Amino acid sequence: MHAIIFYYTLSGTTKMVAEAIVKELNCEIEAIVDTQKRTGAIGFIRSGYQALKERITTLEPLKSDPATFELVLIGTPVWAGRISVPARTFIVQNKEKLKEVAFFFTSGGKGNEQKIFPAMEQLCGKKPRATLGVTSAECKKELYLEKVKDLTKAIKS
Ligand SMILES: Cc1cc2nc3c(=O)[nH]c(=O)nc-3n(C[C@H](O)[C@H](O)[C@H](O)COP(=O)(O)O)c2cc1C
Fold first, then answer.
1. Atom number of ligand 1 nearest to Cα 9
2. Residue 87: which pLDDT band, with cuts at 50, 70 and 90?
3. Is the CB of 80 under 6 A from ligand 1?
4. pLDDT tens digits for range 26-47
5. Closest C-alpha to 103, from 132, 62, 67
6. Is 76 close to ligand 1, i.e. is its CB under 6 Å away?
7. Cβ neighbours for 151, distance < 8 A, ≥ 6 positions apart
8. In angstroms, rounded to a whole number, what is the distance separating the alpha carbons of residues 39 and 109?
9. What is the CB-side half-sphere exposure of residue 57 using CA atoms within 13 A?
10. Per-residue pLDDT averaged across 134-152, rounded?
11. SS (H, E, C) 86-141
């Protein structure tokens, strides 16, 4: 299956999970690159506020065309219980180009599945083929690797 991951990361966790998925799925990968500064306390507060208000941002142009892939996996960190602003922007700007989709997120705490996946599904207008949610704690202990295997199994089945 011709697949690609588009992911956004601020501090590297979602990137790490995206790269683990690439190893299992042998697909392409591209980072969603934001143009806004989001580091430091002010960046953190602004990002949380913008996510809560479901704002969009200005992204760097994509290198790959999502329309040329059978499956697009979209990865985001959770911000203020929402999809991150750059990942939301990617979906809003590309949803017409998406054939099949799969979603994953990383989060500081537990219990974001019921909010993030339905929100991503609604934004894309498509049911995901598979989903994966992992916490930072699972990432530190490499517990996410089993979950990555489950995701790729679900995609291939
Ligand atoms: C602005 C901001 C808001 C966040 N809000 C939440 C939240 O509401 N719930 C949560 O579980 N984690 C929250 N986090 C933690 C991130 O989701 C978590 O650390 C994630 O793994 C970071 O991914 P990244 O390293 O790819 O940027 C927030 C982080 C940031 C920067």
1. 26
2. very high
3. yes
4. 999 999 999 999 999 999 999 9
5. 132
6. no
7. 21, 24, 102, 104, 130, 131, 132
8. 20
9. 23
10. 94
11. HHHHHHHHHHHHCCEEEEEEEECCCCCHHHHHHHHHHHHCCCEEEEEEEEHHHHHC
Closest-CA residue to 84 (of 145, 15, 27): 15
Residue spans per domain, the chain? 3-156
Of 129, 133, 156, which Cα lies nearest the Cα of 144?
133
**Residue carrying structure tokens 């991503």:** 120
Task: Say how many Å lie between the CA of residue 126 and the centre of ligand 1.
Answer: 24
The number of C-alpha atoms within 13 Å of 31 and in the hemisphere containing its C-beta is: 14
How far does residue 68's CA lie from ligand 1's centre (Å)?
30
For atom 16 of ligand 1, the residue with the nearest CA is: 107
Dihedral sign for Cα 38, 43, 47, 53, please: negative
Residue nearest to atom 9 of ligand 1 (CA): 81
No. of H helices and E strands in the chain?
6, 6
- Closest by CA to 105, choosing from 76, 84, 82, is 76
> What's the pTM value of the predicted model, to 2 decimals?
0.98
Return all residues near 122 (Cβ < 8 A) that are at least 6 apart.
none
Return the CATH class of domain 3-156: alpha beta
